[in-house]
């Protein structure tokens, strides 16, 4: 037997196993005692007798309940799932087929039972420690979780049979203490138990990790499953890394700075994004206010709008002014009549006097001539009038006025060609006129309907048709609810701001769904009763929804309609999101041909493919215009204004066409009447030649008479006076007629003024700003209005107001769209704000409050403070982190060095020794990580970075910290690559043989024979155990090592070398090996036990042998 290492004195401190006690453990039924020799004990026996069961009992005292049993039987060292605390405590011996329940386990102990394992260690200083795990099972216990565990320690010996009374009380701690007063009890508290046990027997890891040392002892037990030197040393020899702690410190240090930075950047970015909002909101608000004020001017109240009232007032004022003018005109004309009448009477008297004078001097001839002239002139008047009418008719039909009977006959021949003998208008002309009149009237009706519809939409925010809103109002009033408690689906849905191109498709697909009402389940009975009991004269659709238990909707698939629609915050929102995903996950496609390969889809133009294969596209005019989806109706109002403006433009054209048709009809009628008049005219009725000749002859005779008798001056005077008299008479008559007309007009004006005044008394005239607006508008439309233009002025003002409303709506719509886009961008950038903020444009004041708060927080000062802090903290923990990485790489070599010093003294193989070597295999990710840290830290000490460089370095650090703190699978693998220094090396073994220059390299046992591999593992595990349990320079205080199925593949020489190698590290060995290995191993141990089993009874026991240089002598087993 090899001598222990120099400096090892087993007589002083090292604890070695002395005794094993078993009660009801596996096939070891009842109480069993196995005494272990200080120089080691060999346990042997046939396969399946219970060797591994014995070693599992020992390890269960050292490890917690997560221990894996019978690990040596599996090369992967994962242990057997069939061997558990429960199977060992029950004593499972096999299984048998049951006719009703299939395979059924066979147990030695099926009722209430207990089990215990105790290990006693002793050193040469007479110190004894006993550790025990006891278990209690009731009859109903069926698995490990049903077992009551009791852990205990004694600083001396104990007999586990003394636990029998405690077992009767289910191993309660008080019962254990009464049964064994000298023990310390721990119940199932493994942590306290193992800490105390480790302190007593010296199981301490090299870095203070007792658990690692115990796990290595367990690994040694199943050394048959150890194949890889690299894994073994990294797991059990190398220190646990402190890099993770440094990483956490660096991340934690950076986190506070980052949080401050992110809050400031967030605030800065929010201020930047929201900066246009105040002006946009003011523009939107002002435009809305302007549009509302302007609409108020044309909105009828009590049948009259402010515009109408203003025009009525203006009309009344104009009527009053005109009436005053006409009253003055009447007075002037009465005065003129009286003046002319006086002059007429004065002139008539003078003429009478002169005529008497003329008669007295022979003036009868002239009298006769004058009478002839008067008769001829009287005859000429109707002829001239008819000739003038004929001239007008000829001008109407573009023919010259006839000068003789032949010319008239020729013209009448033309007239017969242009008349067909029928009276009245041409049917085609009349039909065309009537058609154009009807079109203009229909346009007027459409405009009135549009204005009414526009007024309806302007008075609400919903896109739902007015008829449906009226039905909802009736239901809400009938059941005592507010209307917003019965929302239409369409009021809670809208197309996302960046998906506006899909609005038409959304309306086609969701329009019917949008017209349904949603009813909270709590209100469902009342709504159902009301709807059922009343004739609502409309189609009603509603859906009860359980809002108190909202459904969890799946996320909509990208590219589907469900993903392009947003849902307003409301109690119905979860249900709506679920319905969208369930019913409207139609794929949105630009090209209709893509629908062929899709189950359900919708094109951008609104063609829908349903799940059953039905395709549908509804392009009816009313469908194209009707909209039901949207959080508000601003777009609908704007479109209605645009439509109204277009319809009014159409009306102007239709009225022009109607007037043109009417003018054409009138022109045709005038020509028809002219031709008829020409045809019916006789030449004698229009021939003035004969009468004009008579008048000329009489005139010449009169002139001759005057010249012959010298009375020319008297006649001249009389003639002058007659003309003056006639003129005065004419003036008097004209003034009288004008006075009559003025009086009549004045009366009419006064009556009309009174009528309009009566209307004005019934309305409120515009005042203040409204009056100012209408006055300015009137001046703009007609600077000098008159009674004749006042009607046109009203139309012009109406059109001007509508133009202004349209402009205000357009400005408001533009501002609203910009605000909506801004709010959508805000919530898309900071979705966490969606809990308190929404996309609704009307919630912009909340954003303005946020902006004001951000601006009040003095962001520039906070950023300056952060930059100052960044200047003062220039490493962010990265220096410590990278230094630790590099230090730990050096520590690996430091840990391997002492191990190699010991391995050089331990023979291996054929006159050689082992050395553990390390090779660098650092991953590229680790090298890049270190290079990035070096680059970040470069030029930071003693240098003042400007703000841009500082923020740039901060972003580089942030990128590293994000990956270092990430839980993403890829980042977690990256973290292991860059932070786990053990991954940066590969550990292998080299065999150095005397006389050979080249060393033999072993990565594991794969390239060796079975025996050589086990010798290699024995040496490396021995070194690892010595390092963990006592270090290289110190003798381990705990010296007991168990090996199951040890060295089963080795020949006798290799087996002895492997055992001696382990003992050279100062360990007491308890090895379980097959019986055919007994003779090759017995000389290395102080005692041996044979495990014998009785398969029929399912029981086993251990029989001891004393080992000497001669044949083994049988000795009685202890117990």
UniProtKB/TrEMBL annotation:
Gene Ontology biological process: DNA synthesis involved in DNA repair; double-strand break repair; SOS response
Alphabetized UniProt keyword annotations: ATP-binding, DNA damage, DNA repair, Nucleotide-binding, SOS response
Gene Ontology terms for molecular function: ATP binding
A matching Pfam family: SbcC_Walker_B
Signal peptide range: none
Keyword DNA damage: yes
SUPFAM superfamilies: P-loop containing nucleoside triphosphate hydrolases
Keyword ATP-binding attached: yes
InterPro entries tied to this protein: P-loop_NTPase (IPR027417)
Protein name: ATP-binding protein
Organism of derivation: Cellulomonas soli
């Amino acid at each position: 037997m090899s001598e222990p290492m120099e400096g090892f004195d087993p007589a002083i401190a090292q604890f070695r196993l002395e005794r094993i006690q078993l009660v009801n453990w596996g096939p070891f039924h009842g109480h069993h005692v196995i005494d272990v020799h200080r120089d080691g004990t060999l346990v042997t026996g046939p396969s399946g007798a219970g060797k591994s069961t014995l070693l599992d009992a020992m390890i269960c005292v050292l490890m917690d309940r997560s221990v894996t049993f019978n690990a040596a039987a599996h090369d992967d060292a994962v242990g057997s799932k069939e061997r558990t605390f429960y199977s060992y405590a029950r004593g499972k011996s096999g299984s048998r087929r049951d006719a009703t329940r299939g395979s059924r386990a066979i147990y030695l102990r099926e009722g209430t039972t207990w089990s215990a394992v105790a290990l006693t260690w002793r050193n040469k200083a007479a110190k004894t420690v006993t550790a025990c795990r006891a278990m209690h099972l009731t009859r109903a216990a069926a698995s490990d979780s049903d077992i009551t565990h009791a852990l205990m320690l004694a600083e001396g010996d104990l007999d586990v049979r003394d636990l029998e009374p405690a077992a009767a009380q289910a191993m309660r701690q008080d019962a254990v203490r009464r049964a064994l007063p000298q023990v310390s009890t721990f119940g199932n508290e493994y942590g306290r138990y193992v800490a105390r046990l480790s302190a007593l027997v010296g199981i301490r890891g090299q870095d203070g990790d007792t658990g690692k040392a115990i796990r290595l002892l367990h690994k040694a037990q199943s050394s048959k499953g150890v194949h890889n030197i690299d894994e073994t040393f990294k797991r059990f020899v190398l220190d646990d890394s402190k890099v993770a702690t440094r990483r956490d410190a660096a991340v934690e240090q950076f986190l506070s700075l980052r949080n401050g930075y992110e809050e400031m950047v967030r605030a800065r970015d929010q201020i930047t994004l929201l900066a246009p909002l105040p002006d946009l909101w003011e523009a939107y608000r002002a435009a809305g206010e302007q549009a509302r004020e302007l609409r108020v001017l044309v909105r009828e109240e009590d049948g009259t709008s402010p515009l109408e009232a203003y025009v009525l007032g203006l009309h009344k004022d104009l009527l009053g002014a005109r009436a005053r003018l006409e009253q003055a005109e009447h007075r002037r004309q009465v005065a003129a009549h009286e003046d002319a009448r006086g002059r007429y009477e004065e002139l008539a008297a003078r003429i009478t006097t002169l005529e008497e004078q003329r008669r007295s001097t022979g003036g009868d001839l002239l009298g006769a001539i004058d009478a002839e002239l008067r008769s001829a002139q009287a005859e000429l008047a109707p002829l001239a009038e008819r000739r003038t009418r004929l001239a007008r008719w000829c001008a109407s039909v573009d023919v010259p006025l006839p000068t003789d009977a032949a010319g008239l006959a020729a013209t009448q021949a033309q007239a017969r060609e242009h008349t067909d003998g029928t009276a009245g208008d041409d049917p085609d002309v009349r039909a065309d006129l009537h058609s154009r009149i009807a079109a203009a009237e229909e346009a007027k009706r459409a405009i009135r309907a549009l204005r009414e519809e526009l007024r309806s939409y302007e008075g609400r925010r919903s896109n739902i048709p007015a008829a449906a809103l009226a039905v909802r109002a009736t239901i809400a009033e009938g059941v005592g609810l507010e209307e917003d408690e019965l929302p239409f689906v369409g009021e809670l849905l809208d197309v996302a701001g960046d998906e506006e191109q899909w609005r038409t498709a959304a309306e086609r697909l969701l329009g019917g769904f949008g017209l349904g009402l949603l009813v909270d389940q709590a209100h469902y009975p009342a709504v159902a009763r009301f709807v059922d009991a009343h004739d609502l004269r409309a189609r009603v659709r509603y859906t009860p929804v359980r809002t108190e238990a909202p459904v969890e909707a799946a996320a909509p698939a990208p590219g589907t309609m469900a993903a392009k629609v947003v849902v307003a915050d409301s109690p119905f929102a979860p249900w709506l999101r679920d319905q969208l995903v369930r019913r409207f996950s139609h794929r949105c496609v630009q090209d209709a041909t893509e629908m062929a390969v899709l189950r359900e889809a919708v094109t951008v133009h609104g063609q829908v493919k349903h799940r059953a294969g039905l395709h549908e596209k509804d392009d009816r005019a009313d469908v194209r215009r009707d909209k039901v989806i949207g959080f508000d109706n601003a777009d609908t109002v704007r479109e209605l204004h645009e439509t109204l403006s277009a319809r009014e433009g159409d009306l102007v054209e239709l009225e022009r066409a109607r007037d043109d048709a009417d003018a054409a009809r009138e022109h045709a009628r005038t020509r028809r009447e002219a031709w008829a008049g020409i045809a019916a005219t006789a030449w004698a009725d229009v021939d003035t030649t004969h009468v004009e000749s008579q008048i000329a002859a009489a005139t010449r005779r009169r002139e001759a008479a005057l010249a012959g008798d010298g009375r020319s001056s008297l006649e001249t005077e009389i003639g002058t006076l007659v003309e003056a008299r006639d003129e005065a008479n004419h003036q008097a008559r004209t003034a009288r007629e004008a006075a009559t007309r003025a009086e009549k007009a004045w009366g009419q004006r006064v009556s009309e003024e009174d009528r309009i005044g009566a209307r004005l008394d019934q309305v409120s005239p515009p005042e203040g700003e409204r009056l100012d607006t209408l006055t300015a508008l009137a001046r703009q439309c007609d600077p000098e209005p008159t009674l004749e233009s006042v009607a046109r002025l009203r139309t012009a003002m109406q059109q001007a107001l509508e133009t202004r409303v349209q402009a205000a709506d357009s400005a408001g719509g533009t501002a609203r769209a910009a605000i909506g886009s801004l709010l959508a961008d805000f919530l898309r950038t900071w979705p966490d704000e969606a809990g308190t903020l929404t996309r609704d444009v009307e919630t912009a004041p909340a954003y303005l409050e946020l902006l004001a708060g951000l601006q009040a927080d003095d962001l520039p000062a906070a950023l300056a403070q952060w930059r100052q802090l960044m200047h003062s903290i220039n490493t962010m923990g990265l220096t410590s982190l990278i230094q630790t990485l590099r230090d730990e790489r050096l520590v690996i070599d430091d840990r391997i060095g002492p191990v190699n010093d010991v391995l050089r003294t331990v023979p291996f193989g054929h006159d050689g020794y082992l050395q553990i070597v390390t090779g660098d295999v650092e991953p590229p990710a680790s090298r890049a990580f270190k290079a990035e840290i070096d680059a970040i830290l470069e030029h930071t000490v003693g240098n003042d970075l400007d703000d841009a460089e500082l923020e740039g370095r901060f972003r580089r650090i942030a990128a590293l910290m994000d990956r270092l703190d990430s839980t993403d699978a890829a980042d977690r693998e990256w973290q292991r690559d860059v932070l786990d220094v053990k991954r940066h090396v590969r550990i292998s073994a080299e065999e150095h043989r005397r006389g050979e220059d080249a060393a033999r390299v072993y990565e594991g046992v794969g390239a060796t024979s079975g025996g050589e591999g086990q010798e290699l593992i024995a040496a490396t595990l021995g070194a690892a155990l010595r390092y963990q349990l006592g270090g290289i320079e110190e003798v381990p205080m705990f010296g007991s090592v168990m090996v199951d199925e040890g060295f089963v593949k080795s020949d006798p020489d290799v087996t002895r070398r492997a055992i001696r190698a382990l003992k050279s590290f100062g360990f007491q060995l308890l090895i379980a090996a097959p019986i055919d290995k007994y003779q090759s191993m017995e000389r290395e141990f102080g005692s041996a036990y044979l495990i014998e089993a009785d398969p029929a009874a399912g029981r086993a026991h251990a029989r001891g042998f004393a080992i000497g240089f001669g044949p083994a002598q049988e000795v009685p087993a202890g117990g």
